[in-house]
Amino acid sequence: MTADQADEVMAEYLLKGGKMLAKSCKVCGYPLFEYKGETQCVVCPLAASEEPLPEPEPPAPAPETGQPPAPAAREPQGEAAVEIERTIVHLCERIRGEQRPDECLTLMKAVERGARALARLGQR
């Protein structure tokens, strides 16, 4: 499944009244959705019917020094991911109340870009 196809699927769920959550799927990295009372990944079921997704990278092994790994290398990505997630949630809230189709489309494109950014951060 291409990123564009995944974005289309997510946009469809938003239009159906699904709520994009500030949590990502541990398998594919795309945002999870709350739809009809269930939290689910809307991308994985479709991707499973096409081709396997690449395996997520395993976490780096801890150094042999007995000290926990330094989180400094991951903090900027973590902070960026949190801000992107917050922005996506805010955009989704705006989409729900938006009456103008052109503005709704603009907001949905921004959500799509945010989802792509989150996926890229999750791959590093």
UniProtKB/TrEMBL annotation:
UniProt cross-references to InterPro entries, sorted A to Z: SSSCA1, UPF0148_domain
Protein name: Sjogrens syndrome scleroderma autoantigen 1
Regions of compositional bias (Pro residues) in chain numbering: 55-71
Region (Disordered): 50-80
Taxonomy, superkingdom: Archaea
Pfam families: Auto_anti-p27
